[in-house]
């Protein structure tokens, strides 16, 4: 699902 991908991207940005 696109939502999952969006959430993963957001989490990755948060880590950085």
TrEMBL record:
Keywords attached to this entry: Mitochondrion
Record-given protein name: NADH dehydrogenase subunit 6
